[in-house]
Amino acid sequence: MDSTQTPVPCGAPWPHRAVWATAGELVIDGVAMAALARRYGTPVYVMAERDVRDRCRAYRSALPGAEIAYAGKAFLCREMVRWIEEEGLWLDLASSGELAVARTAGFPPERVLVHGNAKTPRDLAAALDLGVGRIVVDSIGEINRIAAGASRARPQRVMLRVTPGVTTRTHPAVATGGEDQKFGLSISSGAALEAVRRVLDHPELVLTGLHCHIGSQLGEVRPYLIALRRLVALLAEIRDRHGRVLDELNLGGGHGVATRPGGAALDVTRLGPRLTATLRAACAACDLPVPRLFVEPGRAIAAAAGVTLYRVVAIKARPGGGAYVAVDGGMSDNPRPALYGAHHEVALVGRRSEAPLRTMTIAGRHCEAGDLLAADVALPADVRPGDLLAFAGTGAYNHAMASNYNLVARPPVVAVRAGTARLIVRAGTARLIVRAETEADLLARDMAPAGVAVRQGRTVEPVGHPGKG
User: DSSP readout, 91-146?
Assistant: First the structure.
């Protein structure tokens, strides 16, 4: 880069240390994205390690004394587990597969919570064998199954997930605090208290506290405070009925993040003090000791740390004006726009354009009319095949929800890390943390018909396959 050029910070929703450098280059933690795309091919997920660590530390600072459990469903791999462990957080996991990642990464099992509304026998066996810190009970029928796998000599510590009847302003698919949904046990119907009674009847189980999760992408503090007060009231009722004082209260996650410049987000520096103050006041009113507070951010830690890079494949004029810009990825690597109407900030990377802006829709490569990654975004009118586009805020629920639709291989994940404190090109390092899938991977599970020989041929690797360096 030109040494006289001062990098311009990108701001939210890009990673903290993302800057625009000379000639339209996007640089994250000192790593130029155009060079990274040439090395690893596209599509490629990029995760900024320092950004993840910054957000972990922000939660710990805003909620001193609380336990912060990273919701692994947002993005999980062994390198991410290492970052979370080193930052002193817990892990919130939801399957035997996620537990396997944590186990093989050496994460302390006593700092693992296991969730799920339909935990399979395999999931529960993996959790009990690992000796996880908490299993979050989600149904009355699950209580006996957990107790059967535990023992009096080695009782399993559990929390009880309840539905507090809190409505939230979010997409219906991620609203989980109301009465009529698949998660948890209703407070108002009495199901939660019945579950408490049954857990207390099992000496193989230790009930440590209550849990709730009221939804995702929430931008207001108030719903959390309502849920907190309702859970404290339930703690008081459990004490009065059963003589048991539970010492943990888990309010889940769902903290909203900005997906576009100026977008609304839930500020943890505001959330933390208000939760703490409300918890103390509610407990004082009920004459209860203040329980240990847990929160479970996932998206709020991972989303803005991630960027996805695509190559433009084709341009097509759109009736009525504008254009479709087709890229080499799509709903297989980012299904959220199609599922939830998610929005992402999009930018041309690697060259500076003086062309006027034009309204464009970024189309994915899949055989699906709904495979649109971004509608009506402003890009330079001279965008052409071969150009590189960057999507911000893709660190959560992109790699985690990726599929092989059209038998397209899933992209690699590359971590970037700043080599110095200065924001200069080539100051940082890039490292592969999840390799790209290959056609060999796709064929490995496909069993050939009996008696039919499989034709052997050359497997085409993606451009910039990590095996090349």
Answer: EEE-SHHHHHHHHHTT--GGGEEE--TT--HHHHHHHHHHT-SEEEE-SHHHHHHH
Q: Looking at 10, 212, 283, 367, which residue is catalytic? A: 367
- Count the neighbouring beta carbons within 10 Å of the beta carbon of residue 354: 6
Give the Å distances, CA to CA, from 401 to 335, 379, 398.
7, 27, 5
**Which tokens belong to 77?**
């791999």
- The stretches in the chain having pLDDT less than 50 are 1-4, 170-171, 173-178, 421-426, 466-469
For 241, other C-beta atoms within 10 Å of its C-beta total: 12
Classify 236 as helix, strand or coil: helix
Strand partners, 156: 205
Q: Is the peptide bond before 43 cis (omega within 30 degrees of 0)?
A: yes
pTM attached to this predicted model? 0.91
**161: closest CA among 209, 126, 121?**
209
Cα–Cα distance between 210 and 245 in angstroms, integer? 11
Asked whether the beta carbons of 359 and 376 are under 8 A apart, the reply is yes
Could you give the C-alpha distances from 305 to 17, 48, 417, in angstroms and in order?
10, 5, 11
Return the amino acid letter for 448.
A
Phi and psi dihedrals of 300, rounded to 5?
Answer: -65, -20
> Which pair of structure tokens corresponds to residue 236?
């008081």
The residue among 97, 95, 96, 92 whose CA lies nearest residue 134 is 92
Sign of the CA dihedral running 183, 186, 187, 191: negative
The closest of 280, 219, 277, 215 to 251, measured between CA atoms, is: 215
* Of residues 336, 446, 310, 466, the one with CA closest to residue 391: 310
Active-site residue, 367 included: yes
User: What per-residue confidence (pLDDT) applies to 22?
Assistant: 87
> Any idea which residue has 């999760």 for tokens?
213
What is the per-residue pLDDT for 427?
Answer: 65
Amino acid identity of residue 68, one-letter, is: I
CA–CA gap between residue 392 and residue 401 (Å, rounded)? 17
Query: 468 in helix, strand or coil?
Result: helix
Instruction: Say which DSSP state 231 is in.
Output: H
Question: 22: buried, middle or exposed (CB in 10 Å: 19+, 13-18, 0-12)?
Answer: middle
The one-letter code for the residue type at 221 is V
**Euclidean distance between CA atoms 18 and 284, whole angstroms:** 45
